[in-house]
Amino acid sequence: MKKADTSGRVGARRGAGRWSVLVGTTLLAVTAASGVAGAAPDAGQVLAKPCGYSESGGRAWYNHCTSDGSRIQIRLDAVAGLDTNRCVDPGETVLGWAFEYRNAYYTGRLCPPR
Fold first, then answer.
1. What residues are paired with 56 via a beta bridge?
2. DSSP secondary structure letter of residue 66
3. What residues have CB less than 8 Å from 53, skipping those under 6 apart?
4. Is 90 in contact with 64 (CB distance < 8 Å)?
5. For residues 72 and 87, is the Cβ–Cβ distance under 8 A?
6. Is the torsion defined by CA of 44, 50, 56, 60 positive or negative?
7. Which of 9, 25, 64, 91 has the greatest CB tally within 10 Å of its CB?
């Protein structure tokens, strides 16, 4: 005859399973309520960074805000070394580490489409 397990381990496993289901259900509900699960981003989410040069998370960014799909030339103001020109597509472009650049600005020139 088997002895009954009085260590409480069976109940602990059952409770852990319930806890996992509760956490998973809560995360699913929060994700669905916040609109993260498969929803199209709104205008505030699309333009997370300001137009032009910005720095965040230790990185330098250039956000080319346009609705015509144009590629533009920007001038990168380097902290050390030579300033350079670069073509950027519409939207956010990571330029590199923020400590490498002071600024970036539109030169007034368009770049050929890809």
1. 59
2. -
3. 60, 61, 62, 101, 103, 104, 105
4. yes
5. yes
6. positive
7. 64
Alpha-carbon distance 114 to 105, whole Å?
Answer: 21
Q: From 67, 70, 105, 99, select the one nearest 86 (Cα to Cα).
A: 105
Give residue-wise pLDDT tens across range 57-67: 999 999 999 99
For β-strands 59-64 and 52-56, DSSP reports them as antiparallel
The residue ranges of DSSP E strands in the chain, in sequence order, are 52-56, 59-64, 71-78, 84-88, 91-97, 101-111
Which residue has tokens 């350079």? 84
Site of tokens 């609705």: 67
